[in-house]
Design a protein that fits this description.
5-stranded parallel beta sheet, disordered N terminus
Length: 311
C-alpha cells in the first residue's frame, strides 16, 4: 500500500518536471527572435512627458453652442471673429482656454472688459463671463464701465493703473456709442482718441492681446411740434464703426463687429426695437437685450476657439 502511494507521487513529480521542461523549450523557441527585455530601468535616462502640443489637437476639443435669436431679427451676418488679424491676435488667449478645457492647466484666465454704460450695467459682460466659466472653468471676467464714457475717458492715469493692476490675460474694449452721439463727431478725432488710449494700455500691458467691439446701434432724438419726440437711426454710428474696424486692423487688434452682425445700417436698430429689447431712450437696452449681446460675444469667442483647436 505504501509502495503504491510512493510510486504515484514519483510519477506526478516526473510529469510536472517534464511539463516544465517542455514549456521552457517552447518559450525559448518562440522568443529567440525578439530582443531581450531589460532586467531593470536605467536610472540615468530621463522620463519624457508629452506636453499638450499645438499639433495634437482633436476635434473632440471643440465646444457646442446654441444662441437663440429673436424671430424678428433679419439681415444678420455670421457671428464670427473671422479676419486673419483678429484670429492671430487671439491665439494666446485661445491657447490658454484650450489648456483649461483639456485639464492641462489650473491657472486662472483673467479677462477684463472696459467700456461705456453698456458695460457699466454689468449684465452684458457678466453674461459673457458666466458662459465662459461654465465651459472652461477657471475664468475671471472683470468689467469696468463708466456711464457716458468715450475712449478718452479711460486715458486718465488712475484708470490705466486700475486696469493694469488686474493683470489681464485678455482685454476687451467696448466704445463708440457716445462718440457717435456727438453731433460734431469727427472720424479723425475719434481715431486719434483710440490711439491715445491703446498706446497707454500697451505701455502698461505690453504683451496683452486686445479686442475692440463695435456699438450695437442706437437712435437719436429730435423734438417736433407740440413737444413730441421723434427718434431716427443715428447716422454717425456706421462711421464710428468703420473707424473702429480700421483702427483695429491697422494696429493689430482683434475686432468683434456686433453692429454689422446684428444687421448694420439697415437693420441693427430696427432689429433691437422690433424685438422690444431697447429702453425708451432708444440707446440703452433691457436686461434681455444685454443678455443676448453677451450670448453673441460668447458665441463669437467659442467659434474662434473651435477654429483654433481644429486647424
Amino acid at each position: 500500500m505504501i509502495g503504491n502511494v510512493y510510486m504515484n507521487k514519483s510519477r506526478k513529480i516526473w510529469a510536472y518536471m517534464l511539463i516544465t521542461i517542455l514549456t521552457l523549450w517552447v518559450d525559448t523557441f518562440y522568443m529567440s527572435g525578439q530582443d531581450k527585455l531589460p532586467q531593470k530601468s536605467h536610472r540615468d535616462e530621463l522620463i519624457r512627458t508629452v506636453n499638450p502640443a499645438r499639433g495634437l489637437k482633436h476635434y473632440m476639443d471643440t465646444i457646442s453652442y446654441n444662441v437663440t435669436y429673436p424671430i424678428s431679427f433679419v439681415g444678420m451676418r455670421k457671428n464670427e471673429i473671422a479676419d486673419s488679424v483678429s484670429l492671430n491676435v487671439l491665439m494666446p488667449i485661445l491657447e490658454q482656454l484650450r489648456l483649461l478645457h483639456i485639464g492641462a492647466s489650473c491657472d486662472t484666465v483673467r479677462i477684463v472688459h472696459i467700456g461705456d454704460s453698456h458695460i457699466r450695467g454689468h449684465i452684458f459682460p457678466r453674461r459673457v463671463g458666466e458662459d465662459l466659466s461654465n465651459v472652461f472653468g477657471s475664468v475671471s471676467y472683470t468689467d469696468m464701465g463708466v456711464n457716458g464714457a468715450t475712449c478718452l475717458t479711460f486715458t486718465h492715469p488712475d484708470r490705466i493703473n486700475a486696469i493694469a493692476s488686474l493683470k489681464p490675460d485678455f482685454l476687451i474694449l467696448s466704445f463708440g456709442t457716445n462718440e457717435s452721439h456727438n453731433r460734431a463727431y469727427n472720424s479723425a478725432v475719434h481715431y486719434h482718441q483710440m490711439d491715445e488710449l491703446i498706446q497707454l494700455l500697451r505701455d502698461s500691458l505690453p504683451n496683452v492681446p486686445m479686442m475692440m467691439t463695435t456699438p450695437p446701434g442706437s437712435y437719436v432724438r429730435y423734438r417736433i411740434r407740440r413737444r413730441k419726440r421723434k427718434y431716427v437711426i443715428n447716422p454717425r454710428t456706421s462711421v464710428a464703426v468703420q473707424t473702429i474696424c480700421k483702427y483695429a486692423a491697422t494696429h493689430n487688434i482683434a475686432v468683434w463687429d456686433m453692429y454689422h452682425i446684428v444687421g448694420g445700417e439697415d437693420w441693427a436698430c430696427k432689429n433691437w426695437l422690433a424685438a422690444h429689447l431697447m429702453r425708451p431712450d432708444h440707446i440703452h437696452f433691457l436686461a434681455e437685450g444685454y443678455m443676448l449681446q453677451g450670448d453673441l460675444l460668447y458665441e463669437a469667442i467659442v467659434k474662434a476657439y473651435n477654429y483654433y483647436v481644429s486647424h
